[in-house]
Prior knowledge:
The complex is a heterotrimer. Chain B is mainly α.
Amino acid sequence: MSETILTVDNLHVAFKTQTGKLTAVRGVSFDLKKGETLAIVGESGSGKSVTAKSIMQLLPAATTEVTKGDIVYNGKSLLKMSKRQVTDLRGSEISMVFQDPMTSLNPTMKVGKQIMEGVQRHEQLTKAQARNRALEMLKLVGIPQAENRLDNYPHQFSGGMRQRVVIALALACNPKVLIADEPTTALDVTIQAQILDLMKDLQKKTETAIILITHDLGVVANMADRVAVMYGGKIVEQGTLDEIFYNPQHPYTLGLLQSMPKLNEDRSQPLLPIAGSPPNLATLGEGCAFAARCPHTMAVCHTYTPRDTVTETGHSVACWLQDDRVAGSRDLVETGSPS
Amino acid sequence: MKRYLLQRIGFMLITLFIIVTATFFLMQLLPGTPFTNPEKLTDSQLAILNAKYGLDQPVAIQYIQYIGNLVQGDLGYSFQHEGRTVTSMISDRIGPSAFIGLQALVIGAIIGLVLGIVSALKHNSLLDYGSVTLAVLGMSIPSFVFAALLQYYVGVKLEWLPVALWEGYSSTLLPSIALSVTVTATVARFIRSEMLEVIGQDYIITARAKGLKENQVIVKHVIRNALIPVVTMLGPLAVSIMTGTLVIEKIFAVPGLGEQFTLSILVLDYSVIMGITIFYSALFIFVVFVVDIIYSFLDPRINYKGESA
Amino acid sequence: MTKNIPHFPPHQDLQAQNQYAYDEIPSDLFVKAPLDQRKSEEIGTPSVSFWKEAFQRLIKNKGAMISLVMLVLLIALALIGPSLNEFSYREQNLAHSNMPPKVEGLEWLGFNGQNSAGVDQYAERDVQINYWFGTDEFGRDLWTRVWKGTQISLFIALVAAFLDLVIGVIYGGISSFYGGRIDNVMQRIIEILMGIPNLIVIILFILVLEPGITSIILAMVITGWVGMARVVRGQVLQLKGQEFVLASRTLGASNPRLISKHLLPNVMGPIIVTVMFTIPTAIFFEAFLSFIGLGLQAPLASLGVLIEDGYKSMRYFPYKLIFPALVISIIMISFNLLGDGLRDALDPKMRK
Ligand SMILES: Nc1ncnc2c1ncn2[C@@H]1O[C@H](COP(=O)(O)OP(=O)(O)O)[C@@H](O)[C@H]1O
Ligand code: SF4
Ligand SMILES: [Mg+2]
């Protein structure tokens, strides 16, 4: 269980836009171990999807550039592979589930065909065998009357059922890594729980490692082994679920936790949304990206980018509050909570 | 489905009925009399002619008679050509028009599809700019201007193709090419923007994420989905070709329906103008109907109520 | 396997992350210093107004800008061109019939006064004055006639587009504003009108009204407004259901404010674009009608009439066709490109 399957190392991704270069991911690093679930959380626009898509190399080649860093799958750099080698891996070793099941299936192709297509691309199967696999997968993800549903079109399914189809499609070749980019954001709350349970179930059976991207900490609490918190294109804090939830060290993480309704806690405690808006990635320079919204901002935060440090309890934080030179209180909660 | 079809057909008939009625009464308002040189005719001669064509009846009776005949496919007699029925004139003339029209449609569709698809695949390349420019020229330059220039340079100056003779297959080429320019441009622009739209869709990323090779993604997902709505262009294209034939047949002396129509307008042959108007309208309504049916088969999201799911 | 890749934390060599030496950061910087509120407000994306943004997008569009310049130029020529020489558009001079174009200094471009047989007509017929675009069979100056014709064609198109706009906005507005049964009936009427090929209706009406500027305009407007009405109705319906309209209603925004701040910018865009495409369509129909003999009567000239005349004698006097054909083509291309540019610039879908 502890073998690393995927490593993202100091990844920087930039886009060419009409207004100039925009660096959306600016130094993301994490390891993913076999069979584990790593949650990446952060506000929208923090670079979660860009990170995920650069692993799959699904970003538009013409306008995207990995300016620094590397992505290593199973010991080999994905960035140095040929186009052909990358497409061989896609769908068979690394798969992806997208946010909106309403748009992520081809509306004019039967769902069975859409699953078979991927299977036949990666495995030498006859049409009948591929169809059988598609059927198995639909059953596996709990679609009732799967035999009849193979020949249905996406619009004949509900949102939740469609997301099951997308998951079936992603898992059809038994990938080692599944990247789920906000897989339940577009769904009703009750359906969300079903889909998450399904993913957990399937993970047990298949030992797939999951990168679960979300901005919902409730989902994280349910699913994740480890958590990485992203802000402004960087991972600002990373550690085990318990560490992040019960011993957060980054002001942004704390802010996120405080803005979450907690199921098992006193409801009378008021919710604290984080004031301010996400940084503009196009104009972001040196310094901590969170400085403009942080309740603990120091002079150093404006000019120097904080480095990753390891806390005593063993998780990594990028925040100047960790530095020995900090004068005054370092207690996040004391100054962070309302008077 | 049955209900939807019946409803559609009902609506088509109502539309057609309104067109026929409006045309009929507009014709009553037309200046002059339907006969050439009425001054030379004596009153008694005129009376005989009027009686023959039923023009001595009250308008209401004429109208009812016209509708009655129309239901049986009888569009009446030409006022200019002794004894010719409008129906027979249309059926004599429809052949050449249909031939050059369909040929233009095929030429335009093929070139337009190729241009549009290549353009979208090489988005923002020189090739793209080139074909976009061609398409804008094709949409903008009036077909009769293009036809006249074509006739002058290819026919008169270079003498490659017959100028204005209706003899053999080669004489269908210039008119078809002239007609096809708008078709090419329309199709190229349409398919290009459809392709660009489809390429940006989430399900294309899904297809790539499955590991499909790029050409599989393009052929099976992008082009397939972009082609489906092209069918809806057939209605407007039919109109554009129909419009085009009116002038282009005149320019290239094609003995088709369009030429007959413009001729009849000049000599005020009322019954022929009316007959061809009704024929064109019916054809257009029918094409739109057929296109809708085809489209509902091609796009599984459309159910027979004609609404998207 | 990949033993040389450390697990967690991924980067032991932390110094390598940034260029500066961490130990050298002065420790007096580690005191609280929050950004002041104004500065943090600036951090969010600046909100440029919709029209300003659209305008910026438009001027970046080369095709649209060139078209705009061309149109300004052509409109200027249409207005002043006829008075740039001493001829009038209707004055005949049979002694100077069918003179080829001649411009001093532009002989190499074909403005050399030679007919298709290569004979210099000006020398042969001892004509002292130069006709820049040549003359027609009655000896009327084509330069004057072409610009006069452009003037008339543009006039017809602009008036038709304006009437379409007025009728379309009223019809579409009423239909979408009242909704329900009224909307239903009004939509059925539109559907029927859409079921008829435009050109047929136009031809029938011209036959009834007899050719002339007014009748051409009227005939085009009879079917032309339908497109505008549909655009307006669609936009208003879409906006009616949108949250920001409801929201500003509940926040007590006054009606004029609602209309000027929210409705207008959203409805104006599609309306402008539709007008931009209506104008070339009208120019085309006018020329088309003239070409099949339903256009203006001599001596009035429009581009269509000139093209028709030119076409008839194209074999021997190609210049008679080429000038009006060129002008109409440039006008059509420019309006279409400008329309495209405006659509791209004003498309609210592109708003981030
Ligand atoms: N193809 C692209 N071209 C330019 N900018 C992009 C592109 N994709 C994403 N971005 C920008 O990158 C930033 C991060 O986006 P994303 O990763 O989608 O955020 P999220 O964390 O919500 O998934 C955003 O500011 C977005 O505008
Ligand atoms: S580095 Fe400074 S601004 Fe950034 S989170 Fe830490 S204390 Fe706040
Ligand atoms: Mg995202």
